[in-house]
């Protein structure tokens, strides 16, 4: 079980960058409860004129507490991947790459740019996504897109190592993402999501309603000798949008 806590403070810029979406080389159960808090946090003391010129910004950060059993099991798989498949594998680098791929692919889905998914998403999955996304209302399509700054939390889930009948070797990692969207979605039929208001500007400014959504993306790579080191997305689920 993973419990989530929302706290608000100014978000620090990330010091990690990734140069490609292909998830080459360095490219994973389900939380059941989350609590949301909103508020402004400022460091130090400022005069009224400074507060008017630099109103506090509100950000949401999700802190996850992983299930100990799942945490231990996935660490064993990471060790096996480094030992038998890729000695340079790092789950931290993989997670950063997966977040970028998730943001990029979700934006393409939102814009119904299915041809651009080739090489990133499994071919058999693209056809299914095209059929599902084409029938979604415009607000639902908008809610598929996850801006990098709106991805609140990312965690690996199941990790799999398997061989097919031809002896080919594969590794799959399931990743779960929590992200915010300002798309207007109906309250009914959206169980499992959280709705809260985020202040824009100072405390007397207008508020914007955002919803916290979850998505599951599974990344798979073939480790057979001579095969390009590419991670491919083989599963995409957006809670209550693309199930």
What does this 3D model show about the protein?
The chain is α+β, with helices and mostly antiparallel strands and 243 residues long. It is built from five helices and eight strands; from the N terminus they run ββαβααααβββββ. It has helices at residues 48-53, 68-84, 91-110, 123-134, 138-144, and strands at residues 3-8, 33-35, 60-65, 151-163, 169-181, 194-199, 207-222, 231-238. The strands form two sheets. Strands 4, 5, 6, 7 and 8 form a five-stranded antiparallel beta sheet that branches. It has a three-stranded mixed beta sheet with strand order 2-1-3, with no helix packed on it. The longest helix is centred in the middle third of the chain and has 20 residues, at 91-110. The radius of gyration is 20 Å and the shape is globular.
TL;DR of this structure?
This protein is of the alpha+beta class and 243 residues long. The protein is built from five helices and eight strands.
